[in-house]
Design goal:
mainly alpha, two-stranded parallel ribbon
Protein backbone atom coordinates (compact mmCIF):
# COMPACT_ATOMS: atom_id res chain seq x y z
CA UNK A 1 0.00 0.00 0.00
CA UNK A 2 1.37 3.39 -0.94
CA UNK A 3 0.58 6.23 1.44
CA UNK A 4 1.36 9.68 0.06
CA UNK A 5 1.41 12.26 2.82
CA UNK A 6 3.37 15.30 3.92
CA UNK A 7 5.69 14.46 6.81
CA UNK A 8 8.90 15.68 8.36
CA UNK A 9 9.60 12.24 9.80
CA UNK A 10 11.56 9.50 8.12
CA UNK A 11 9.14 7.60 5.81
CA UNK A 12 10.09 4.29 7.46
CA UNK A 13 9.28 5.67 10.92
CA UNK A 14 5.98 7.00 9.60
CA UNK A 15 5.18 3.61 8.07
CA UNK A 16 5.85 1.84 11.37
CA UNK A 17 3.68 4.34 13.26
CA UNK A 18 0.77 3.78 10.85
CA UNK A 19 1.09 -0.01 11.05
CA UNK A 20 1.16 0.12 14.86
CA UNK A 21 -1.91 2.37 14.95
CA UNK A 22 -3.95 0.34 12.45
CA UNK A 23 -2.71 -3.19 13.24
CA UNK A 24 -4.12 -4.90 10.14
CA UNK A 25 -5.04 -8.58 10.67
CA UNK A 26 -3.18 -9.52 7.49
CA UNK A 27 0.31 -8.85 6.09
CA UNK A 28 0.72 -5.42 4.50
CA UNK A 29 3.65 -3.79 2.73
CA UNK A 30 3.16 -0.15 3.63
CA UNK A 31 5.22 2.46 1.79
CA UNK A 32 5.04 6.07 2.98
CA UNK A 33 6.24 8.73 0.57
CA UNK A 34 5.85 12.51 0.50
CA UNK A 35 4.18 14.27 -2.43
CA UNK A 36 7.59 15.76 -3.27
CA UNK A 37 9.18 12.30 -3.44
CA UNK A 38 6.42 11.09 -5.78
CA UNK A 39 6.91 14.10 -8.06
CA UNK A 40 10.68 13.55 -8.15
CA UNK A 41 10.29 9.88 -9.05
CA UNK A 42 7.72 10.68 -11.74
CA UNK A 43 10.09 13.27 -13.22
CA UNK A 44 12.75 10.55 -13.38
CA UNK A 45 10.30 8.23 -15.14
CA UNK A 46 10.05 5.68 -12.30
CA UNK A 47 7.90 2.84 -13.73
CA UNK A 48 6.86 1.53 -10.29
CA UNK A 49 5.35 4.83 -9.14
CA UNK A 50 3.82 5.48 -12.57
CA UNK A 51 2.14 2.06 -12.55
CA UNK A 52 0.72 2.62 -9.07
CA UNK A 53 -0.67 6.03 -9.97
CA UNK A 54 -2.15 4.85 -13.27
CA UNK A 55 -3.56 1.48 -12.17
CA UNK A 56 -3.86 1.59 -8.38
CA UNK A 57 -7.08 2.15 -6.45
CA UNK A 58 -7.48 5.30 -4.39
CA UNK A 59 -8.73 4.30 -0.94
CA UNK A 60 -8.81 7.73 0.71
CA UNK A 61 -8.09 11.33 -0.19
CA UNK A 62 -7.91 14.06 2.41
CA UNK A 63 -10.50 16.80 1.79
CA UNK A 64 -7.85 19.47 2.40
CA UNK A 65 -5.59 18.28 -0.34
Amino acid sequence: MLVVMPTNRDPIDESVAIRMAVRPPFPVDLLVRTPQMIQQWLALGDPFVRHILEHGKLLYASPDG
